[in-house]
Design brief:
About 55% of the residues lie in helices and about 15% in strands. It is α/β, with parallel strands linked by helices and about 950 residues long. Among the domains are: about 480-630, Histidine kinase-like ATPase, C-terminal domain (Heat Shock Protein 90), CATH 3.30.565; about 675-790, Response regulator (Rossmann fold, 3-Layer(aba) Sandwich), CATH 3.40.50; about 805-920, Orthogonal Bundle (Arc Repressor Mutant, subunit A), CATH 1.10.10. One of its GO terms (molecular function) is DNA-binding transcription factor activity.
């Protein structure tokens, strides 16, 4: 065997070690991924939505470093876009993504790319051909349809709408308009009064919309095809002073400081519809196509409405996604740094390969770098999976928030209704007992009843505060300011507290700096603010303490300042940070309240563009200061010709400011034969109303709307008292059906409800109600209201009787009752020659019963059906007697009288002259 010596052995060992190190280095190299080139043909002038699309692509491409991405922008030029796609073909690309400016011009070149075997992904705007690999984008028709349904629900299916369309002929504008029109077709109460075209940019709206709004000043809502157009619409409304009344809905829902989500949160837009740019989904689809993985040809992106109910959730989710994307980018930068370190170490390894020790060290470092690299890749993979999961959760969170908001609204509405119904049954009998003669009740019983009334009124105040809280929460409490004297206004409120303060020996002082301070303010809002502050001060001020109310102008700050200072125990340090929180009760307070007074005062003061602050020293008292601006924006002021709103009367305080009681019994009802129908689903309230009305009327009752409608049609009552919140068929629907049926259209209807918001009262009156009373109500007021309605109906009956007393008996069917009289008159006139014409014949011709016809005619005209027929015959006789060619007997038989003598007797009884005398007086003998 040959002997090579120690040097050869050393070289062999070095070569072996070097080969080992090189083998390790080659194993550490990850398998090389194939590289792809993707071309993106874009058409934009740099708008935010297109930038969001490109940003989404780049964000998704960060997961695919093996992809070369090239973008060409055609700047809204279809010709340029065709040329750029041809350039992509010449440069050589593996896949083409196209967001077309116009569908038809680019369709041929896209078909050419597809026919060459290059995959084509159509993004956002479709072409007119099906020769493409995949489509990614939203369903614009679904966006328009969703917007139409949301607008109808937002306007409660009644209102006037203006639509701002995108560029004419563009597929998004055409499809969104079509979906919006189809949705609105299901709501006949929604009227689209105008539509304008645009070029998708805000200046076009600023130029064209003002003329439309001036021509249509009663517009309720503007639907714009993107958020840039919606922002332009808001600016136009602001210039015209309509921004608080007109609701604006846009499309896109982009994140960011200038995106649609922020515009909704800032209250500029009422809502926006999410229309995803689709950049991430386009890249994901393209990579599935290039890597030969399964993919869908049609990838439709979902949409949703973003409004005040879910905008905060959406903003938090988008911000969280952005933060996580930044973390991914930082991790990728770290990965690149690690890879660069690894590359440099590998270079050193090759340079120092001959140095075995150095090579071993470098090999160890390379191995450690590989392990770190693998851990980073695993971390990135987990984070990517988490992002994908959170994307799916966003929609679930939004739906959940919407359901929770709706449940919250239903809770407050039902809560108010359920409390006001028992309060009606408490306050109604108590008020009636207290208004009785003083000799009817012992003094102890009257004191107990007064205590019940005060506490029931206090419970009603708490219910009203809860509803005010909800109105502030959803922005449904508008400011309606009128010009007035603030000094006199505050003095009237303080008069309510004068008696309870005097009973406890508390000095109540009012120190205005001026005899009169005139400014614009909402009396309903400031009444609640000042009443809560004074009530709070009186509650926490000890007996023989002092409350000082100061009012002064602050010209330097262009404001007026009102302070309420007491000498109570003050506010502890731990309570000061929470004193204005809803439902918070002080930890050291001996007199616990509802925790709503100060929070409500703060919310109402801010609503009035003012400030509410306080200072306090434990053991020395507290001072609350309300600062109000001397001037309010015109949008918050009522027109000078509008009636100034009256402040709601303050409730009686616990120490006993009893409401004035009326003495004496109610006068007897002259028309006690009048029939009143009570429709109320609550058995106790139904029984209470029946008990109070029976001494003065005939009363029948029903417990649901369907039964009430049936009884009304059968018995034709003189009055109907109906609750609004009825099962299955609501009170508003009952009123609408009553007023639409000529059998019952004349019957006055009084609506009783716990819904006391002004817009709800307007809704009841619009439905046709003659009177709208909120629970709890005063039984005496209800009874007098019913009497007034009956008196007004007598006047209306006299009006109809005068209409029928003229020479012609035809009545113009301008209203339901007049149409009934016109139909009735026509039937009688058509049968004047029948001497056997009966009431049953007329009722049969009208399709009703004899009793229904009698009660209807009696209610409208105050006369019987037979007298009505006789009156029409005699009126017609006056016309025929003027023609001397017919004898009196012929006239009698022509009009259905059984004999000329009966005709003469009836005519003379009606007109105090005989037929022959009437003819002699009104005809002139021929020469």
């Amino acid at each position: 065997m040959p002997h090579f010596g120690p040097r050869f052995s050393f070289l062999v060992r070095c070569a072996f070690f070097l080969g080992l190190l090189l083998g390790i280095g080659s194993c550490a190299q990850p398998a090389a991924k194939p590289r792809y080139t993707i071309g993106f043909s874009q058409c934009t002038n740099g708008d935010a939505w297109r930038q969001a699309m490109l940003a989404g692509m780049k964000k998704e491409l960060s997961f695919y470093p093996e992809v070369d991405f090239h973008m060409k922008d055609a700047k809204y030029s279809s010709t340029l876009q065709q040329e750029q796609i041809k350039e992509f073909l010449e440069e050589g690309i593996d896949l083409l993504i196209v967001s077309a400016n116009e569908a038809e011009p680019v369709t041929p070149i896209i078909e050419e790319v597809y026919n060459r075997g290059i995959p084509v992904v159509i993004l956002d705007r479709r072409t007119t051909s099906k020769l493409y690999t995949a489509y990614v984008g939203g369903n614009n028709e679904e966006v328009g349809h969703t917007a139409g349904n949301y607008v109808a629900n937002l306007l409660k299916q009644k209102g006037r709408v203006v639509e701002v369309l995108g560029a004419p002929g563009s597929s998004p504008a055409v499809d969104r308009h079509l979906g919006f029109e189809q949705a609105l077709a299901a709501y006949p109460g929604i009227q689209k009064v105008a539509q304008i075209n645009s070029n998708w940019e805000r200046p076009s709206v600023l130029e064209r919309l003002p003329a439309v709004l001036r021509a249509q000043p009663n517009v309720d809502l503007i639907f714009a095809h993107n958020d840039r157009l919606a922002l332009g619409a808001y600016q136009v409304c602001k210039q015209l002073g309509m921004q608080r009344r007109v609701k604006i809905v846009g499309v896109d829902g982009l994140p960011g400081s200038r995106g649609g989500i922020q515009l909704v949160q800032d209250g500029i837009l009422t809502a926006t519809l999410l229309y995803s740019p689709g950049g991430e989904e386009a890249i994901r689809t393209a990579m599935r196509i290039l890597s030969k993985q399964p993919y869908d040809k049609e990838n439709i992106l979902s949409t949703m409405v973003i409004d005040s109910t879910n905008v905060l959730t959406m903003k938090m989710q988008t911000e969280k996604l952005a933060s996580q994307q930044q973390d991914i980018q930082r991790q990728q930068q770290l990965l690149l740094q690690q890879r660069a370190t690894y590359a440099s170490q590998q270079t050193v390894l090759y340079v120092l390969a001959a140095a075995l020790l150095g090579a071993a060290v470098l090999g160890l470092l390379a191995f450690r770098a590989f392990r770190v690299n693998r851990r980073i890749n695993q971390t990135l993979g987990q984070q990517n999976e988490e992002i994908r999961s959170q994307r799916n959760q966003i929609q679930e969170f939004a739906e959940r928030a919407k359901v929770e908001t709706e449940a919250k609204l239903r809770f407050f509405t039902n809560f108010s209704h359920e409390l006001r119904t028992p309060l009606t049954l408490i306050l109604g009998p108590v008020e009636e007992m207290l208004t009785a003669s003083p000799t009817d009740l012992p003094a102890a019983h009257r004191h107990d009843l007064s205590l019940i009334r005060r506490n029931a009124q206090r419970l009603l105040q708490l219910v009203n505060q809860l509803m005010d809280f909800r109105k502030i929460d959803v922005g449904k409490m508008p400011v309606r300011a009128t010009e007035g004297n603030l000094v006199g206004f505050v003095r009237e409120i303080m008069d309510v507290f004068e008696k309870p303060a005097r009973q406890r020996g508390i000095s109540l002082r009012f120190l205005p700096s001026e005899p009169a301070i005139r400014l614009w303010f909402d009396v309903n809002i400031l009444d609640k603010v000042f009443f809560n502050l004074l009530s709070n001060a009186l509650k926490f001020t000890p007996d023989r303490g002092q409350i000082t109310v100061s009012l002064q102008l602050v010209p330097a700050e262009n404001s007026v300042r009102l302070s309420v200072e007491d000498t109570g125990r003050g506010i502890s340090e731990q309570d000061r940070a929470h004193i204005f929180e809803w439902f918070y009760q002080g930890q050291q307070s001996a007199a616990r309240g509802s925790g709503m007074g100060l929070a409500l005062a703060l919310g109402l003061t801010r609503l009035h563009l003012g400030q509410l602050t306080f200072t306090s020293q434990p053991g020395k008292g507290s001072t609350f200061v309300v600062t109000l601006p001397l001037e309010l924006p015109p949008a918050l002021k009522l027109p000078t010709d509008s009636a100034a709103p009256q402040a709601m009367p303050a409730l009686a305080l616990e120490e006993g400011i009893a409401a004035p009681a009326t003495t004496g019994e109610l006068p007897a009802m002259a028309g006690s034969e009048a029939l009143v129908l009570v429709i109320e689903d609550n058995p106790d309230v139904n029984a209470f109303l029946t008990q109070k009305l029976q001494p003065h009327f005939q009363v029948s009752s029903a417990f649901d709307g369907a039964t009430g409608l049936r009884l009304a049609a059968e018995s034709i009552p003189d009055l109907i008292v109906c609750d609004v919140m009825l099962p299955e068929l609501s009170g508003l629907e009952v009123v609408a059906q009553l007023k639409g049926d000529w059998r019952t259209s004349h019957i006055p209807v009084v609506l009783l409800t716990a819904r006391n918001a002004p817009e709800q009262q307007v809704e009841g009156v619009q439905a046709g109600a003659d009177l709208y009373l909120t629970k709890p109500f005063n039984p005496t007021f209800l009874l007098e209201s019913l009497r007034t309605l009956l008196a007004n109906r007598d006047k209306m009956r006299e009006h109809f009787r005068r209409e029928l007393s003229v020479d012609t008996v035809t009545v113009a069917p301008q209203r339901v009752d007049q149409k009934f009289l016109a139909d009735l008159t026509a039937i009688v006139e058509a049968n004047l020659g029948r001497s056997d014409l009966t009431v049953e014949d007329v009722a049969r011709s009208l399709g009703i019963s004899r009793v229904q016809l009698y009660r209807k005619v009696k209610a409208v005209l105050g006369t019987g059906v037979t007298d009505f027929i006789q009156g029409i015959r005699l009126t017609k006789a006056r016309q025929l007697l003027l023609d001397d060619e017919q004898t009196i007997a012929e006239v009698a038989y022509q009009l259905g009288f059984s004999s000329p003598s009966y005709f003469s007797t009836s005519f003379k009884a009606r007109y105090q002259v005989s037929p022959s005398e009437f003819r002699a007086l009104h005809t002139t003998p021929s020469a």
